[in-house]
Amino acid sequence: MPTDAQRKPPGRDADFVEQLAAANLHPLWDRFRTLTPVRPQAKDPPLVWRWADIEPFAGRAVAQVPIDDVERRALILVNPAFGGETVTTNHLIGAFTILDPGDRARPHRHTFAAIRFATNAEGAATIVNGRRCEMREGDLILTPPMCWHGHINDSDRRVTWFDAANIPLIRALDANFFEPGDPSANEFWQVEDGEEKLWREAGMIGMDAPRLPAHSPKYHYSGAAMRRLLAALPPGRDGARTARYVNPVTGDAVMPALDCYAMRLTKGQPMRPRRTTCNMICLVTRGKGRSSVGEHSFDWSQHDVFSIPHWNFASHQAHEADADLFIVSDRVAYERLDLLREEFQ
Ligand code: 1HN
After folding, report:
1. All domains of the chain in start order, with CATH
2. How many whole angstroms from 165 Cα to the centroid of ligand 1?
3. Which tens digits make up the pLDDT trace of 52-81?
4. Cα separation of 311 and 240, whole Å?
5. Per-residue pLDDT tens for 247-266?
6. What is the pLDDT of residue 8?
7. N or C: which end of the chain has fewer CB within 10 A?
8. % the chain with pLDDT above 70
9. Torsion of CA 186, 192, 197, 201, to 10 degrees
10. Whose CA is nearest to atom 12 of ligand 1?
11. What distance in Å separates the CA atoms of residue 298 and residue 88, rounded to the nearest whole number?
12. Checking DSSP bridges between strand 114-120 and strand 241-244, what pairing results, if any?
């Protein structure tokens, strides 16, 4: 394939191009290289956010920001390559939320998709559409588009968890709608697990389950169950053991434009570098290791987060013991647009 530089510069007559522009016309021959790069080129280099650097700010955020004054108390991971935009990597935002004992993050709903992954949130719960989802170690909780959700810390200690959302994608599409809930509505919080019971038993669903939900009808995915699956899974083509969180009715991604995975890395075992057109945010849920992404290499340990911007070869290696990653991605959006490409180095 020719590189951009090897393609012939288009001939142009500056006067003509200017006159066209004045008439709100652009000549394609003058724009072609910009409009159709020969391959994707991510704006952002990969970046690591270390939990040790974030944690002190979490304490300060709790001290300075009363939860009743803000919609959410989240610290968002930002890559400066986006020029000050609130973006972690293309289409995605990762963050950490902190709640003190008794804190309630009031209900709201929106068209962007979001998830929580419980890193240190025992005793807290997310309520999604009238179902209480407890946040045990390693649990994943979906807050699908336009589902009402709020968070509560019923424990006597500070809790933190990892959040991710596809806000930059929904902003690019200018398709965001947001509705605040009633902060004083007590009945919102006084619920039990409700219909989540229908989705707890793996591989078994009610005969009359609706066949065409836009997102998974199951909102709560157990960390303990995922750890059992990772222990049983054989290594995949890249050498890692990877599981996808799916909609139990369709077997498809959990939400239309946000996709989640868990990966177990065997100690010392190298992976085959792979690149894909989609973007990923990786949360280290257990262990220590090193990743190589494009031209960059970096070490990580538990609760660090790093980005894998699209079309960079990436591989990971666990040190000392096996390590686990939780990965959130826009992969399903690329699948649905028939734009997913993947290759090994
Ligand atoms: C979000 O939507 C929530 O709705 C919480 O509960 C934290 C952090 C970053 C982006 C979106 C919520 C968030 C978030």
Report:
1. 48-204+213-344 (2.60.120.10)
2. 7
3. 999 999 999 999 999 988 999 999 999 999
4. 19
5. 999 999 999 999 999 999 99
6. 44
7. N
8. 96
9. 120
10. 72
11. 17
12. unpaired
